[in-house]
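hey so i finaly got around to running the thing on Galactose oxidase from Luteolibacter rhizosphaerae. pasting the sequence first so u can double check i didnt mess up the copy paste, my clipboard has been acting weird all day
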Amino acid sequence: MSPALVRPLATAAALMASPLHAGPVTPLPPVPDRIGFAGAFAGVIGSRLVAGGGANFPDGVMPWDGGKKVWHDRLFELDLSSPSAKWNNIGTLPAPNGYGVSITLPEGILLIGGSDSSRHLAEVTLLTLREGKPAFTPWPLLPQPLAQMAAALVGRRIHLCGGITSPKATAAEAAHLILDLDDRPKGWQAAPALPASGRILASAAAVGDTFYLVGGCSLASDADGKPKRSYLRETWKFSSGIWTRLADLPRPAVAAASPAPVKGHSIYIVSGDDGTQTTPATHKGFTAEILRYDISRNTWSDDGALQVPPPVTLPTAPWKDGFVFFNGEVKPGVRTPAVFLFTPGS
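ok and heres what it spat out for the 3d tokens, dont ask me to read them lol
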């Protein structure tokens, strides 16, 4: 190869390796709420993005200043197939709810567990659209109330792991549950528990027949009996009935978008709380770093950075070759109404 050809190719390779390179973020219309929501539910039905629930501080007063968190039940819909589409208010959830898990299925959007202002929930509900309005069908209850857990669809089975059972819990769960979509009457079945500390706010992913669980944090009581977090870098997979620990993350990642974006044999952890800022009132925002896990090599690498304020505590919803990121929080207590499409690996 001539030197004239080597130079441009080398330059392109350098740009691809640069920490400024990232999969493109395509902005979508912000949700019609001036504050936005953390811990919301989101999924896609046909070409319709349906999202809602979650919690925020509507008066703008942060919790360390006495602000009150409010849980919501509003549902919004956006036609992803139309470039000029606008959000519509389409109704409400059966009750205010947030911090559960939402999974896009061929049948609709499955809303799993979550919480309101006083308790955690065991309800599981399939959300569908009938003549543009939300309809809800009860599905098998969780064995116990859960919020802040992680789940992903592996084939026709939903794997769920972690979470906490009540707002005052000082220990997280390591339980692992499976729901077979083709044998729903059996309900949620206990599977081998994660052989490590229980955790909340991990990210889950599915690749082939394997379930992945990444990051999160464990809990323990502090001197005052309040929950204290330990930030985790662990990566685990569950395959053929066995948990295996994989390469650790380069940094902790708590409350990164979940289910985590996947492309081919790569899993992407986008932002997340790395635990380096411990004073909420002076927090400068979460890391913009995107981490990529190469399944074939069992390695993590830097895959660039978001060029938008990085959100945490948010759901994703698959759309074409990307993943919709819906709202979340950009600083402790501070929500965002932003919505964007993240296309991994581009």
